[in-house]
Amino acid sequence: MNDTFMYLIFLWTLIFIGLLAIGGFFMFRKFLKRMPKEDGRSELDWQYYYINQALPLWQEDSRALLNELVSPVPELFRDVAKERIAGRISKIALDEKADKIELDHMMRGYIIATPKRDHGFMKKKLKELNIDYSPYMKYFEFADDEKKKFSIFDHSELAQKK
Questions:
Q1: Which residues of the chain have pLDDT under 50?
Q2: Judging by beta carbons within 10 Å of its beta carbon (0-12, 13-18, 19+), is residue 78 exposed, middle or buried?
Q3: CB atoms within 10 A of CB 143
Q4: Contact 97, 90 (CB under 8 A)
Q5: CA nearest to 68, candidates 116, 103, 43
Q6: Are 85 and 110 spatial neighbours (Cβ–Cβ below 8 Å)?
Q7: Which of 34, 86, 90, 147 has the fewest CB within 10 Å, making it most exposed?
Q8: Are 85 and 66 in contact (CB under 8 A)?
Q9: Is the dihedral angle over the CA atoms 49, 54, 56, 60 positive or is it negative?
Q10: How many whole angstroms separate alpha carbon 76 and alpha carbon 121?
Q11: Cα(13)–Cα(90) distance, rounded to whole angstroms?
Q12: Is 99 helix (H, G, I), strand (E, B) or coil?
C-alpha cells in the first residue's frame, strides 16, 4: 500500500514537471516574439501596427472569409492564428495602397502567414470553399517555416502582385 502511494506521487511529479515544461516552452516562444528587433519593434508590435492601420480596409465579407479560413485551427490557438494572418494580409494591402482587402490580398497573406506544416489543412480548406489556389503556388515557398526563422513581414517585395 505504501509503495503504491509513493509510485503515484512520483508519477504525479513527473506529469507535473512535464506540464510545467510544456507551458514554459510556449510562454518562452511568446516572450521571444515580444523581444524588440533591430528597428526597436517586436514581431507582435508590427503585427498589431499593420492590423490597426488597415482596419478601415476590412469589409464584412473579408472578415467573414478570414473567420472561415481559420476555422480548422483548434479553438485554443484560433485567435493567435487569426491575428497573425490578418497582420500579414493587412501589410500586403497597405503596401499596395489598396482601397479594400480583396481575395487576392487574403490569399497571399494567408499562404505566407500559415506555417508550412499546416499547408495540407490549408489546401483542404480552400478546396472546401471552392477557392482556386493554383495562381498562388509561388507564395508557398515564402510561407512561415520553423526551421528558417524569419519575420512574416520581412519579404514584402516577394509578396507583391506581379
A1: none
A2: middle
A3: 18
A4: no
A5: 103
A6: yes
A7: 147
A8: yes
A9: negative
A10: 17
A11: 46
A12: coil
Pull the grid cell for residue 125. 480548406
Q: How many CA atoms lie within 13 A of 101 on its CB side?
A: 32
CA distance 27 to 66: 26
Report domain extents, the chain. Answer: 1-34, 42-159
- C-alpha cell read off for 111: 499562404
Tracing cell 511529479 back to the chain, one arrives at 13
Angle at 146 between CA 140 and CA 149, to 5 degrees: 95
pLDDT at 87: 92
Cβ density class 55-75: b for 16+ within 10 Å, e for less: eebbeeebeebbeebbeebee
What single string gives the DSSP state of each residue in 107-119? HHHHHHHS-GGGH
Grid cell in block for residue 12: 504525479
